[in-house]
Amino acid sequence: MPFKTFPIIGSPDRPITRSYSVSNTEVNSQAPPVVLREVSRYFGRFAALRTVNAEFEAARLYAILGENGAGKSTLLRLIAGLTPPSRGTVTLFGSEHPASVRHRLAYMAHASLLYDELDAMENLRYFAELYGMHNPGACELSLRKVGLDPLLKRRVGQYSQGMRQRLSLARALLHQPELLLLDEPFSNVDSSSAREMVRLLANARDSGCTVLVVTHQPALLESAADELVQMAAGRIVQGAKAQVNTVSPTQPSTPEVVR
Amino acid sequence: MSLAAQSPMPGPHPGLWPVLRATLAKDLRLEWRSKDAINSMLFFALLVVVVFSFSFDPTAEESRRIAGGLIWVSFLFAAVVALNQTWARELRNQVLDAYRISPAPANSLFLAKAIGNFLFVGVLEAVMAPLFLVFYNLRPIGPAWQLLLVAALATWALVVNGTFFAAISIRTRSREVMLPLILFPISIPALYSMVAATAAILAGDASPAYWMKLLAVYDVVFTTACLLLFEMVLHAE
């Protein structure tokens, strides 16, 4: 089923640039969506991220590349606020408090983050409630955007892996985030569906959303990505205004145990 | 028509009650479809009733003395099954992460889970209580309506702590063992009160008021503590 193109966020009557007053914390609407300063993350003695300095600008699509164990997924989880940094600071939209900006970001993980026993609409309706949205029309539209039928009553547990990925993307786009974090969204998705997903992500970017995509298929994002971010050994070695580039070509790409 | 035009920008803070309602409805729907918790609890509690009734052959008076302990210990063990299920379904497909990155209040999730468990254990008690009466030849001598109040207070005492400690133990490797290890010691004051109150009503030789008050205080103290601490537990790694 071909995807339809819908504007994702932003409209003349609802501009992207704005500021929220959340829990007495004024969030700076002009600040870059993501700024990492001296960020390290250890799991025991294992360094998954090592002194990362980076800045991701608004309304850009970043493709984050790197070998297995380079720290890509940890970087996304850290930005999403699911994993706290061991050292350094993560600033989102000018705020160091993840709770104050949670409504502005979305995360799509390796796992689907969906309930297998519910159908697609039941899943989306529940997640819409978590964002204070009570409009079932938004759920239907989000499903149609990714090429799924809102009337399909099949439980998600019976979906193919590709359908799950698309539903997972629909969940992420549901509340019109300004920062979209996607961890390998194209895995197990056929090539035409993957191209449609890329088009959706490009639309989101064009509407003002910042999109960070971890992928092992850079060719898919070749035309859409504004910047390629290369990671190796727990560091950003290229792109995203990275200020640390100390990895030599001979250094192994998998981070070592910190001694 | 654009999505932006159709749906207004969601507010930064969805309310406690709408999210609680949605989460509870979702949990009840999941349980209705899978019946994981109810079936396991019923099967376990039924085994306890039957095995104990064949192991001992108590007189009516002995039954009244031991039934309180027997009933609540079997409900406690059976409830552990449901409590583990509650969070296990949130870990499948890492759905809990979707909640953690949302602006939804942590306490909505906790209260919805606790109320859901209260209902599941309540169903268990409603089904098992007549069987206890039949198998142990029980007839309350004290005011029977007080058993309902004791059941409500005792069940909340079990599930509020159980839900909280299940959330803590869910990320540990041996969570099936970890939950009883943490939950049972902290439930001893509540367990003692519910057994004493039930025995007092069944035997009709003492007032259960003191034990019911103790249960009520236990409920208030631990519900407050769990609500204050749950956000930290939810967002802990």
Would you kindly provide a written description of the structure presented here, covering whatever features stand out?
The complex is a heterodimer of chains A (259) and B (237). Chain A is 24% helix and 23% strand. Chain A has a 6-stranded mixed beta sheet, sandwiched between helices. Chain A has a 3-stranded antiparallel beta sheet with strand order 4-3-6, covered by helices on one side. Chain A has a single domain, classed as Rossmann fold (3-Layer(aba) Sandwich). Chain A has helices spanning 72-80, 120-130, 136-145, 161-173, 191-206, 218-221, and strands spanning 21-22, 25-26, 34-43, 46-56, 61-65, 87-92, 105-108, 179-183, 210-214, 227-232, 235-238. The N and C termini of chain A lie far apart (53 Å). Chain A is an alpha/beta fold. Chain A is globular, with a radius of gyration of 18 Å. By secondary structure, chain B is mostly helical. Chain B has one domain (15-235). Chain B is 81% helix and 0% strand. Chain B contains 9 helices and no strands. Chain B has helices spanning 3-6, 16-34, 36-55, 60-91, 95-100, 106-135, 145-169, 175-203, 209-235. The chains are: A alpha/beta (259), B mainly alpha (237).
